[in-house]
Amino acid sequence: MTAPLAPPNGERRWARLLARWETLLVIALVGLIVLGTYLSPFFLTPGNFSNLIAALMEVAIMALPMTLIIVAGEIDLSVESMAGLASAILGFLWAAGVPLWIGIPLVLIVGALGGLMNGLLVARGGLPSLVVTLGTLALFRGLALIVLGPRGISDFPPEFTELGFGHVPGTLVPWPFVIFLGLALLLGIVLHRTWIGRQVYAIGKNTGAARFSGVRVTRVKVSLFVLSGLIAALAGIILTSRLSSARADAGSGMTLTVVTVVLLGGVNIFGGSGTIPGVVLAVLAVAVMQNALRLAHVTVEVQSIALGLLLILSVVIPTFAHQAKSAIDRVRGGRPPPADSVPHGERALS
Predict the structure, then answer these.
(1) DSSP conformation class of 342
(2) Taking each helix axis from N to C terminus, what angle separates 100-119 and 129-148, rounded to the nearest 10 degrees?
(3) Residue range 314-318: average pLDDT?
(4) What is the DSSP string of 148-208?
(5) What is the chain's percent helix, strand, coil content, to nearest 5?
(6) For residue 332, how far is the Cα from the chain centroid?
(7) Residue 322 confidence (pLDDT) above 80
């Protein structure tokens, strides 16, 4: 019997494009924009788009290093309390008369040291990152309460608060969005175009094999946690600027949204795959969804349910798709999919 003809190269490329998780996110984003337009006449106004972007930027910024950590097979649940600790220390230093040009670098150093502690406990101590960062989640929040207590500091200078809710001159683009795009570009290049990114993927796929192939697993993991702590502190500074107030409870509840955004962006919770562009698309999708629901006067409780469903679906859909593809392969004779069916670092539906 004559073997079936292979599809042309062009058709294969289109099939691979349609099978990518990022393509599904683009379709979902368009659908959410249409939904937002239907729910509120104010949705498509330039001012509203500026507001919906600014409202999620701290989460978006923390999601970028979280992407690298989860790709490497770990997780950092302490980011929200590190943002709160950064806000508390910055407020304490400012109230004590320390200039911001000194206080901000000190806060960033504290963030890096907190990440270093997480990294050493996980990579050198061999402890599960889930347990370690749950512990430091409580630890950092407790330190923030000791530093600042229940009070808030709100007399920051206008040039500092401009960072949080100001716009690029002549546009409605918030400054935090510019910072987010810069970090996304930088970390995207690192993850997808450098040997560091290849090592991160290798660790996430098989830590033992990566170590035997010469990858310095401990150093890479510690560096990723340091980066996460540093950028979480930066997010805490931006949050303080946007709210014009430093509080110990700043950032509360953000970790769930950060993890949701990363997983919705196509990052495998077990490590080894995921992309920065996918996470950027997920940030936009979540921002549009939350803004549309808010304009429709949907309660906070229902918004929380929607976010939880997104988190579940971002894990369930790829898992079921992979199981279905494996079953089809077994029916066809157990032929595995080609090794190059999904480009390195990308996540497909199958």
Answers:
(1) S
(2) 150
(3) 77
(4) HTT--B----HHHHHHHH-B-TTS--BHHHHHHHHHHHHHHHHHHHSHHHHHHHHHHH-HH
(5) 70, 0, 25
(6) 38
(7) no
* Rama region for 97: left / alpha / beta (φ>0; ψ in -120 to 50; rest): left
Report the b/e string of 24-60 with b at 16+ CB within 10 A. Answer: bbeebbeebbebbeebbeebeeeebbbbbbbbbbbbb
Following DSSP, what letter does each residue of 14-70 receive, concatenated? HHHHHHBHHHHHHHHHHHHHHHHHHH-TTTTSHHHHHHHHHHTHHHHHHHHHHHHHH
Q: Pick from 67, 76, 85: which is nearest to 135 by CA?
A: 76
Q: What is the pTM of this model?
A: 0.87
Per-domain boundaries in the chain = 21-328
At 246, is the secondary structure helix, strand, or coil? Answer: strand
Hey, how many other C-beta atoms are within 10 angstroms of the C-beta on 257? 23
CATH of domain 21-328: 1.10.3470
Handedness of CA 189, 191, 193, 197 (dihedral sign): positive
Query: For residues 110 and 86, is the Cβ–Cβ distance under 8 A?
Result: yes
DSSP string, 97-139: T--HHHHHHHHHHHHHHHHHHHHIIIIIT---HHHHHHHHHHH
Of 211, 181, 225, 187, nearest to 70 (Cα)?
A: 225
Q: How far apart are alpha carbons 314 and 329 in whole angstroms? A: 23
Whether the per-residue pLDDT at 339 is higher than 80: the answer is no
Query: Both tokens of residue 285?
Result: 């999708």
SS3 337: coil
Model confidence at 149, pLDDT cuts 50, 70, 90, reads confident
pLDDT, tens digit, for every residue of 36-79? 888 888 888 888 888 888 889 999 999 999 999 999 999 999 99
- Cα 134 from Cα 143, distance rounded (Å): 15
Residue 246 pairs with which residues in a beta bridge? 153
Name 240's Cβ contacts closer than 8 Å, sequence gap at least 6: 86, 87, 90, 91, 156, 164, 246, 250
